[in-house]
Amino acid sequence: MRKVRFLILFICLFAWGFPSFGQTTKKIEYESDRTIKNEEKYPGALILSKVQDQVHFTHEGIEVWCDQAIHYAQENFFKAYGNVRMEQGDTISMTSKYAEYNGTTQFAFASGNVNMRNPQTSLQTDTLFFDRQKQQAYYRSGGTVRDSASVLKSRIGRYYLNDEKYSFASEVVITNPEYVLTSSQLDFYSETGHAYMYGPSTITSEESVIYAERGFYDTRGDTGYFVKNSRIDYKNRILEGDSLYFNRNTNFASATNNIKVTDTINKSVIRGHYAEVFREKDSVFITKRAVAIALQEKDSVYIHSDTLMVTGKIDNRIIRGFYDVRLYKSNMSGKSDSIHVRESTGLTQMLGNPVIWSGENQLTGDTIHLINKPNSEELDSLKVFDNAFMIQKDSIGGYNQIKGKEMYGLFADNELYEVNLIKNTETLYYMRNDPGELIGINKTLSSSIQILLEDQEVQEIYYLKQIDGTLYPEQDLPPNARELKGFNWRGDEKLNSVDDLFAGEPPYDLVKIKGIPLPEEDEEFFEERTDGEAPLLNEKSRLRPEDLQERAQDTLPRAQHDSLRQVIEKPRDTTRTGSDSIPAEFRELQDTINSNTVKDTLSKKQDSPSRREELLTKQQ
What we know:
- The protein is mainly β.
- Among the domains are: about 25-90 and about 580-620, no CATH class; about 95-220 and about 520-575, lipopolysaccharide transport protein A fold, CATH 2.60.450.10; about 345-395 and about 400-480, Lipopolysaccharide (LPS) transport protein A like domain (lipopolysaccharide transport protein A fold).
- It has 4 helices and 36 strands.
- The chain has helices at about 1-15, 580-595, 600, 610-620; strands spanning about 30, 35, 45-50, 55-60, 60-65, 70, 75-90, 90-100, 105-115, 120-130, 135-140, 145, 150-155, 155-160, 165-175, 180-190, 195-205, 210-220, 225-235, 235-245, 250-265, 270-280, 285-295, 300-310, 320-330, 330-340, 345-350, 355-360, 360-365, 365-370, 380-395, 400-410, 415-430, 440-455, 455-465, 470.
- It has a 36-stranded antiparallel sheet that branches.
- Strand 19 and strand 20 (about 235-245) form a beta hairpin.
- The chain is rod-shaped.
- Residues about 1-25, about 555-580 and about 595-620 have low confidence and may be disordered.
């Protein structure tokens, strides 16, 4: 008895330790109104056919219906013809003209008007491979995916059932009533409608064109996030930056880091590190080292401030700058607390402690206006309102000074050549003879003053009305009397180059952009089978092993996502895997069914004799 118990225990341990020996592949089950054997044409197979109900197969959670089928029970394999429908639970349903299924490897192939559906989307293609063990479907002869918002087309695609994700490669096109999206490679999640773009991608609509080489787009919410060489082209503006956000519903876009906004109509550029664009209001807000550049043929004008705003339609653009405004052009620069530029009139208003340097001349006042010539890029005139003050540093020492209530200046070739001051004017001027020797220091009061300049240096001064002046020898005028009331020399603030626009500002640390990572590299759909594994294809399959080999024109390596190159289109391979070969084979099967006597050849599964008798009665 002890030996018997030991033997039983040994058997149990052996079976538990090596479970694979006890595992067998589950056989495909079927139901059919009509069953025919024809060993001559289909050795080892049963020909199944619809009379009233379609042929029905079940296997490991999958069900297949069709009008006719060839079932190889020994190989656990079948071919299905006519109105084929395949369902896997409530997650996926597929229809086609033809399908075949290998129960050993759970590998299926369908062709001829293939339509695969899940709760959110449908896929239409000519041929489809379906690996149930991986829960992945794959096509390479062109496919169309439809969801509630868009239609997606690509030449190559893979569907991951567990992730509800489509991975499209080569010639991807998404068509929406509002836009068309094209990409070289794209992942689409059917549950959310989210699309991730890899490689050159473009979203074109009536209002804008978006380009990016990596990005995200919510096809149902109409919002997007783009990185790597991203730009948005509007009808009159181009927005570029390291990172772009776009909302089609509100006509809003924002950009972060290394931003460039180009006004293609008015030939101006704004740069910075954060920007917002409101298309309907035709406005731009930009900050973080913001600088506006008016592109002029001879001499561009730069305006920098903490914040810049550009508003108004094309013919009435207004530029506003706030906080620490700095202006620079080759022969003039300036500063103020804020600035207001109306491009249609050419008027630039400098507000809050403004100063302008023109050559060696410094002009200050409560408010300064610069006016461009109509339909020209050249400066026409300037106006200084209240507490107008002009200072020029003397060549040897001291400062020439002119002040009044208001000041008016005239430009020629963008250089100041005449200045007029009115109301309560005063001057303090170092008088020199031709050799340049100092004669004395002239202090004069008058009603108004006219100053003529050449090469932006004072050449002549004319005092008009109510003149009261004194020429002091240098030694008779002490240093503390050599400055008029309100004197404020700011020469150390003068901008001498474009780089001075940012002088004194701390370095700006760019915001860290949250990128869109490349997808993980997936294995090839048709993996090579290792020793001991059954081949994906049954030997009775319409496909050949070479049909499952990856081809250069069918896939784009994941490792090359950042350098995706356009794949040359090659003729579609419909041999054996296309729908063109279905009709002849289908007709041959139908001829075989029609040529056999149902009563003599009818057979059925052994576990359902009642169904067999029922069918015999119907035929009689």
